[in-house]
Each structure stands twice: as C-alpha cells, then as structure tokens.
Amino acid sequence: MSGANCQPWEFVVVRDKDKIAQLYHAYQENINELNFWLEQRFPWELRHPGFRIEGDVEEQLRQLQSRPGWSVAPALFVVLGDGRRQLASVSGASTPGRHQSHLTDALSNASTVIHLAAASLGLASQWVSIHIPEPFMRLLDIPPLLSLHSIIPIGYPRQQPLGGSWRRRLNEIVHYDRYDQSKMMTTQDVLKYLYKLRDATIRAYVRSRGEKSVPTRPGE
Fold first, then answer.
1. Strand partners, 13
2. Which of 48, 61, 107, 192 has the fewest other C-beta atoms within 10 Å?
3. Does residue 141 come out as left (phi exceeding 0), alpha (psi in the -120 to 50 range) or beta?
4. 3-state secondary structure of 142
C-alpha cells in the first residue's frame, strides 16, 4: 500500500558476496558498535538480547565484532524510497510536526510484504534498520536524493523456527468501541513488561546465533 498508489519504493538486490561483506562491515562499524556502547547504559537484564555478552567490556565488544551475522546471507534486499513520488498523495500526509509521511509508511508496507513473501517460501529474513545510511549509500552508489529505509537479509534457515514465540495476549491490546482506560499501562507496568520481554526472548536470540547457553551477567 502507498498513498494514492504513488509507489515510492525501489530495491537493490545484493548477491555479490564481497559487497555483502562490505555492507556488514559498515553495519558493524557504524551502527552495531554505537548500539553496543549505548546499551551499556542499561542494567544487564534490560539490555537488548543481542548485547547480553559475557566477559568484561573489551571481551564483549570483541565477541560482538566477531559475529558473522548477515555477512553470510546469500542475498540482501535494500529498501529505498524516492520522496518526490509521495507528492502524488495528499499534502496532509506530511503535516508539519507530526513526524510521519506516506513515504515511510509505504516503505514499511513494502518491507512487511518482503518478509511475508520470504516466509511463504520457507526462507528466513531479518529486519535490519539503518539509522546511519551514508556509508551504505556510498557502497551501493545510491543517489543522495533517495532514502535508505532498511536492509533485509534473505537466506535458508539453519534451524526450525521456535514455536510459541512470546506475544502479548490479544485481550491486552484489543479495545472495542473506545479505548479501555483500565488497560493503560503505568510507567512502572512498562518497566515490568520490559523485564518480562527480555527474559522471554533471550533464548531465541541465543539459539539464532547457534549458541548453546544463555550468557550470564559479567562477574557471576
């Protein structure tokens, strides 16, 4: 879906192994390392599961940088957008101060369809958000007028997907006829939810990396 069928998306399909390795190296240097240091602000139990790593800080960073990640993926879909095409949609789609546009909406919609299509073919996919696009745009010779939305590695899964992935209950997120204020989470409730979420998902992250055990907190 896109506003007024403006179809602002374009895709770069990357299959060259050297180019994929270069893109992953750029991701490790420009995004993953930044995420690593920012995650150090949080208690161990609240860190993103990808950054719960054993050892002192130097060892944690070394392990992070040694992960092959999606550098071994056989193909990448790089999702691009041309903001000029959203001019086909209504002007209100870019209302000042609302921090939303039909461009990002349409690119998100297209990305979702790619993930669903991959799953229907028995393939695995990953959502890689790109918050610092410049290094990737240089590597792929992308004109600066375009937006780089995300990278989607595609490949064959090495293991069967985990069954029963943890999800919020339907009665917690669905409201009828009006918003049920009794379901509104307090800030304390949100903090409890984050602890529960991390505990429920850490094993899936560990298994996806081929590791055998959940990492323990440094010093334990």
1. 77
2. 192
3. left
4. coil
